[in-house]
Every structure is written in structure tokens, then in C-alpha cells.
Design a protein that fits this description.
The complex is a heterodimer of chains A (about 525) and B (about 180).
Chain A (H helix, E strand, L loop, with lengths): L1 H6 L1 H15 L3 E2 L4 H33 L1 H24 L2 E4 L3 E6 L5 E6 L3 E8 L8 E8 L6 E8 H17 L9 H7 E6 L2 H10 L3 H8 L3 H13 L5 H4 L2 H4 L1 H31 L3 E5 L2 E6 L4 E7 L3 E8 L1 H6 L2 E7 L17 E7 L1 H11 L11 E2 L3 H25 L3 H24 L1 E4 L3 E6 L4 E7 L3 E9 H6 L1 E8 L2 E9 H17 L6
Antiparallel strand pairs in A: 1-2, 2-3, 3-4, 5-6, 5-11, 6-7, 8-9, 9-10, 10-11, 12-13, 12-18, 13-14, 15-16, 16-17, 17-18, 19-20, 20-21
Chain B lengths: L21 E2 L3 H25 L13 H23 L4 E4 L3 E6 L3 E8 L3 E7 L2 H6 L1 E8 L7 E7 H12 L9
Antiparallel strand pairs in B: 1-2, 2-3, 3-4, 5-6, 6-7
Classes of the chains: A alpha+beta (about 525), B alpha+beta (about 180).
Chain lengths: ~525, ~180
């Protein structure tokens, strides 16, 4: 059987296609799909759990009193979800023809998806952990159009999924309906591994990209009530927290030390969770380049494989937060047009609008830049600063009013000492941040690309080709016109990038270049 | 005698005009004024109903809320009217062979330049009042986004229609992207 596949590859594939075509019937996926529906319902339940928590809190005492009843309710919910999963499986049909995929699904609300292969831009292969022992996968198809933007074949044998992906991608690449068979040999000729992330890289990423830092910052006004709540809960363990912070007994230096220790314990705990989450998302991370496509594989339990066509890359972003600076690492992002409407955060393994390469070194970043865009490296080019007037405007229009309001509140409301000090600290910090922001904001233009640098303490650099620009916007106030400065926005399909207070002449030149390029070269935006 | 020429060749002869901006229709201001006037009348009637306890009466003892809300609404409307009186004459558009430009704004003058190559499709939108005055808005959708990226309001319906046809028939749009 295998030898005949090697010798007559076209025949096997056409035979498969013919068999589904002659059946001309809708096929069901493997019963394993019930697992898929069940797990998705559980995930949805957990997501809405946030809203159920108050309900549980109110009824907690009655739950404790009747454990059996509570268990019964839980069992009932799970059974209902199981039944609905079975129903969803029974009502899910698909049909693969030569050049399109049709999906018919839905128990109550039926939906029909008709997706021609040549419209498909992205193929994602996702292997949830419960599919892996059986070698099955879920295939997600995305288009750039707005009509049917997404289709999911929820369970296919892994090998068939791979073949389907190759078939679709070949079709959209060459417009040719007879795909080359990709056996192991042919693939490796064109495969080039661009990057891979080891566990230590992922640990660094988990530590430096902890969203918790921001979260802790927002919690600042609430430290006191939080401390009170934790005090009360620790009392049940016979630990009196205020003893640790009693200045009269311990002395100021000891209290400060205790505070730092507690703080670090908290941070370490959160970092641990963040590292675990990163490893779960990105274990075994590999970034490959296959001909004109970028392919990224990663995942500990659920394996994600995403394909991104090179021509779809709109922008490259190199980010370095202040924590990344400590480790001398950068986060590299391939930004493309987002095809689906649901929100994807940059770290999500299944997101395609932002392909993240986590915590790489400068040399690796330069290599990726070089591979993608034929342009001067982001890191070697010199960036022109925006005008100092930006500081002036931001201070006058934003910072001074905010500080005035804050100071007035402090004066009239007379809150606790620590809150007063925080307000004063913030009022001192804001101008400093403004100056820092101005310092970081820079730009440059080349014949074919735009370079922008921005940030506060960390630094973000981005590059995009002139050809990807959809629209140019500029805005000037009366004063800016006199100073011959302008605010500018580059509108791309993936988002808008702006520059403020740059010389008008400079922008005029780049605008001319962009508009002329559109006329003479007529570059494709995808 | 065979004639042989060996002249200089202009490789790219780029002959370009500065964009010629035309104002949108003055009727747009009338539409805006009429619209705000209607809202003002509506607000006044609601206010008088509550303030003078005509049909409904407020349960609370504090009878100043309607007055404050009404004053805020009226001052907002007055501000918007004054704004549009200055803004509408400054709304201008320019159509060139390969791009379309739109200038607007009072405090911050904004210019949008949209190459026609990147336009996906064009729509014409008319509100109720606009239909009466035969004014329309042109909505231009550029590639890759679901919402319109450029809106030129206050065009005569004929102008909007011609612009739409010009863009749709444009060669650049026929390119397979």
C-alpha cells in the first residue's frame, strides 16, 4: 500500500477525492469529536464562571450544608453537556471536494459553510491533548474575506489534516489544482528552521512577560484593603501579619525588610504561574520557513501549528520591555491582517494576527528581520527624533490638568497619608514619563520601508513596507502649521501607526513616494 | 529613406497636479442645522413636560435635575452648531486619477489621502434629511478592514454617484488582489 502511494501519489489523492465525490454525501467526523465539543462547553462554562462566582458565594453556606445536592447538580450539568456534545457531533457533517470544503452543523441553529479552497489564506492545525493519543487533529481554515471568514473541521486524522493543508496551500499559491505530493523528502528540501525556543528561553519569557506586573500596579490604591483581607485570612492560621510590620516593636529597617520579602514572595508566586503558562503554551516552539510560508509549531498539551504566507506579513515588531532589557531579550512579532473577529492577545498560541517569537536575542531578531524584509535592520538604522513641542503640548493639555485635579482632590478630601504620598509621586512621575516617551519616539524612511520606534522605559521598533500602506492621514493645528510640523498616521490593514510632530517636508516626500509607488508599481497588499 | 531615431527616452514621466480641492455642498450645513434644531425642540418639549409637571411628574423632590440636563443639552447643541458653521466650509475633497483626498477639521486640519489601488468598494449613504436635500455621503472601504475608512459627507447626490462610478470603473480596482 505504501509503495503504491509513493509511485502513484496523484492517483491516491484523486482516488480519495473521487470516493468522496461519488458518495456525494456528507460525512461525519470521527466520534472522537464528542470530546472536542464536550471540552469546548466546559471551557465556555469556565469562562462564564466569573459571572457565576457571586451566585456561588451567596449560596456557599447552603452548598456546604447539602454536599450531595451540590454534587447532584454538578453531575446533572455534566450529563447535559455530554448529551449536547453527542447531539452536536451527530449534527456535524462535512464534504471535501476537489476545490472546496462544505460544512453543515448545528442542532438548533443550523449553519452552512461553503468555503472554496482558493479563498483560504491560513490553515491552522491544532492538536488538543485529548486528540494526541489517537493522532487526530482539528483543522481551522481562515479567509481574508468577510463573508465566511472561518471554518473548522473539528476532527480529522492527523495525516489527512496535513495532506489537506498542503493541498489547500498549494491551490492558493499556484492556482494549480494538482498538488505536489509532499513526502518527507520533498518537504525537508524547502524547510528552513528559523528559530526554536528552549525551556530556558520560555522561562525567561514567563518571567519577563508577566502581565501581573501591570496588574500589581493597578492594585496600588487597594493595597490597604487587600492587606486587611489577607490579615484576616492569615489569622485563621494564627499568623498575625501586622506583627511583621509593627514599626515600634521591630524597628523601621526590619519592617522594610519584611515588606520586601513579602513582596518578593508574591512576585515569585505570580512569576511561577506565568512561567508555567508560558511553557504550556509554547513548549517545543519551532519557527520554520517553507518556501514562502512561515510555519510555527508549539504547545505542551494542545499542539498548535500555524501557517502564515510571507506576502501577508504587514509589519514586523521588535519589542523590549524594561524587564526584557534585564535579560537582553526581545519579543518579535509578525503582524498580519487579522481575519477573524475574536480578540487574540499577542501571546495566544492560536492567534494568527500576531505571530509571536518569544524572548529572542538581538542576533536572532536581526536574522528574522533579514529573512522577512529586504531592508536595513531595525537595529542598525538611525532614528530621527520627533519635535520637542510634543513634550510641551502633552504637558500643557494633559499632564498639568491631571495633576491639578489630583492635587485639588488631595487638598479638599484630605485622604490617608499614604494616598497623599502616592498622588504626589504620580504627579512627579508623569512629566518624567512624558519626556521618556518623547525621547523614544523616532522614525525613519527608506526607499521602500517605514521605521518607527516608540516606548517608555522599554522600546518597541517596527518596520513596514510602503507597499502595505492603505491610507495616509495627516493632521495639523494652527501652531503646528506655523512650525511646519505635522501629525501623521499610516493606515495599514493590520492597524494604524502614528507619528507626531514630524517635519512636514519629510512627510510630504514619503507621501509622494507612497502614492507614486501605488501608481507605477501597483504592489499587492497581500 | 528609412528614418532612424535615437532620442532620449523619459523612463518615467510623472506629470502630476497638486490636488485640486473642492468644497462639499453648503446644503450640508443646512442639514446639520435642521437636525440640531429638531433635537433642540425635542429636548425642550421633554424638559417642559418634566419641569412644569405637565404629563409626568418626577418622583424626587429635587426638581433641578431636568433644568441642568436641559441646559447641558442646549449648550452642547449650540456648541455643535457653531462648530459646524465653521467646519462645513472647510470640508473639501479632491479626486485625482489615482487617488482621492479629503480635508476637514477646524482646530486640527486633517487630510486623508487614499490611493484608489487600495479601495475595495464604495457606498453611498443618505440619511432622512439628506434625502430631502439630495445630499449624500460617500463611504470608501479600503482593503482589509470591515468598516469604511473614508467618509465624505455633504456631497450632491449626482457628484457622489459620479465619484462612485469613477472609482468602481477604475482600472486599479479591477486588479485581482
Amino acid at each position: 500500500m505504501t509503495s503504491s502511494v509513493m509511485n502513484n501519489p496523484d492517483k491516491v489523492l484523486t482516488a480519495n477525492r473521487e470516493s468522496t465525490a461519488t458518495h456525494d454525501a456528507w460525512s461525519r467526523v470521527a466520534p472522537l469529536a464528542i470530546c472536542y465539543f464536550f471540552v469546548s462547553s466546559i471551557v465556555k462554562l469556565i469562562n462564564s464562571f466569573i459571572y457565576l462566582i457571586p451566585l456561588l458565594a451567596i449560596n456557599f453556606s447552603s452548598i456546604k450544608a447539602h454536599p450531595l445536592k451540590a454534587l447532584f447538580v454538578v453531575a446533572l450539568i455534566l450529563t447535559l453537556m455530554f448529551i449536547s456534545s453527542v447531539l452536536k457531533y451527530l449534527y456535524y457533517f462535512y464534504m471535501l471536494t476537489n476545490d472546496e470544503i462544505k460544512i453543515k452543523q448545528g442542532v438548533v441553529k443550523k449553519s452552512f459553510i461553503d468555503l472554496p479552497f482558493n479563498k483560504i489564506q491560513n490553515v491552522k492545525i491544532i492538536q488538543p491533548f485529548y486528540y494526541r493519543p489517537f493522532n487526530y487533529a482539528c483543522v481551522e481554515l481562515e479567509t481574508a474575506g468577510s463573508a465566511t471568514s472561518e471554518a473548522k473541521i473539528i476532527a480529522l486524522p492527523y495525516q489527512q489534516a496535513i495532506k489537506l493543508k498542503e493541498q489547500i496551500l498549494h491551490l492558493s499559491e499556484s492556482g494549480n489544482s494538482t498538488p505536489d505530493v509532499t513526502n518527507e523528502m520533498a518537504v525537508s528540501d524547502n524547510v528552513f528552521e528559523l528559530n526554536s525556543r528552549s525551556i530556558s528561553d520560555l522561562i525567561v519569557h514567563g518571567v519577563t512577560n508577566n502581565r501581573v506586573w501591570i496588574f500589581l500596579g493597578f492594585l496600588a490604591p487597594f493595597y490597604k484593603p487587600i492587606i486587611e483581607i489577607s490579615e484576616r485570612s492569615l489569622e485563621s492560621f494564627a499568623i498575625n501579619l501586622s506583627d511583621f510590620f509593627d514599626v515600634t516593636v521591630l524597628g523601621l529597617s526590619n519592617v522594610i525588610i519584611n515588606f520586601i520579602v513579602v513582596f518578593m514572595i508574591v512576585i515569585a508566586t505570580f512569576s511561577l504561574f506565568s512561567v508555567l503558562a508560558t511553557i504550556i503554551m509554547f513548549k517545543g516552539y519551532r519557527l520554520l520557513r517553507i518556501k514562502d510560508r512561515y510555519v510555527r509549531e508549539c504547545g505542551l498539551f494542545t499542539k498548535h501549528e500555524i501557517s502564515l504566507k510571507h506576502s501577508r506579513v504587514q509589519m514586523l515588531i521588535q519589542k523590549q520591555s524594561y524587564l526584557d532589557k534585564l535579560f537582553k531579550r526581545y519579543n518579535f512579532i509578525y503582524r498580519q491582517v487579522s481575519t477573524t473577529r475574536h480578540s487574540n492577545d499577542a501571546g495566544a498560541a492560536s492567534s494568527t494576527s500576531k505571530l509571536l517569537v518569544p524572548s529572542i536575542t538581538l542576533a536572532q531578531s536581526n536574522a528574522l528581520l533579514d529573512d522577512c524584509f529586504n531592508a536595513e535592520s531595525l537595529n542598525q538604522i538611525s532614528y530621527r527624533r520627533i519635535s520637542k513641542r510634543y513634550i510641551f503640548r502633552l504637558m500643557l493639555l494633559v499632564i498639568v490638568p491631571i495633576c491639578a485635579v489630583l492635587q485639588a482632590l488631595v487638598y479638599f478630601k484630605q485622604p490617608d497619608q499614604w494616598l497623599q504620598y502616592s498622588v504626589h509621586f504620580v504627579c512627579l512621575l508623569l512629566p518624567f514619563l512624558v519626556i521618556l516617551r518623547w525621547y523614544r519616539w523616532g522614525y525613519n524612511f527608506s526607499k521602500s520601508h517605514v521605521y518607527i520606534r516608540k516606548g517608555f522605559i522599554g522600546e518597541t521598533k517596527l518596520i513596514f513596507p510602503l507597499a502595505k500602506i492603505q491610507q495616509l492621514q495627516e493632521s495639523q493645528s494652527y501652531f503646528m502649521k506655523k512650525a511646519k510640523l505635522t501629525n501623521v498616521q499610516f493606515v495599514l490593514a493590520s492597524g494604524t501607526n502614528s507619528l507626531v510632530y514630524i517635519p512636514q517636508m519629510g512627510f510630504e516626500k514619503i507621501k509622494q513616494r507612497v502614492l507614486q509607488t501605488m501608481i507605477t508599481d501597483k504592489p499587492k497588499w497581500m | 529613406m528609412t528614418q532612424i531615431t535615437n532620442n532620449n527616452v523619459d523612463l518615467v514621466l510623472f506629470d502630476e497636479d497638486e490636488p485640486e480641492f473642492k468644497s462639499i455642498s453648503k446644503k450640508y450645513l443646512n442639514i446639520k442645522l435642521a437636525g440640531y434644531f429638531i433635537i433642540a425642540i425635542l429636548a425642550s418639549t421633554i424638559f417642559s413636560v418634566f419641569h412644569f409637571d405637565l404629563i409626568f411628574s418626577l418622583p424626587s423632590e429635587d426638581n433641578h435635575y431636568p433644568l441642568w440636563i436641559y441646559l447641558i443639552v442646549i449648550s452642547l447643541i449650540v456648541f455643535l452648531i457653531i462648530y459646524y458653521v465653521f467646519a462645513v466650509p472647510r470640508m473639501q475633497y479632491a479626486i485625482k486619477e489615482f487617488d482621492i483626498h479629503y480635508k476637514y477639521g477646524v482646530f486640527y486640519r486633517k487630510t486623508i489621502s487614499q490611493p484608489l489601488l487600495r479601495v475595495q468598494h464604495v457606498e453611498i449613504k443618505q440619511g432622512l434629511l439628506e434625502r430631502k436635500y439630495q445630499i449624500a455621503s460617500l463611504l470608501i472601504y479600503s482593503a482589509g478592514t470591515g468598516i469604511h475608512t473614508l467618509q465624505i459627507p455633504g456631497l450632491e447626490y449626482k457628484t457622489a454617484s459620479h465619484l462612485r462610478q469613477f472609482i468602481l470603473n477604475h482600472n486599479d480596482l479591477k486588479r485581482d488582489e
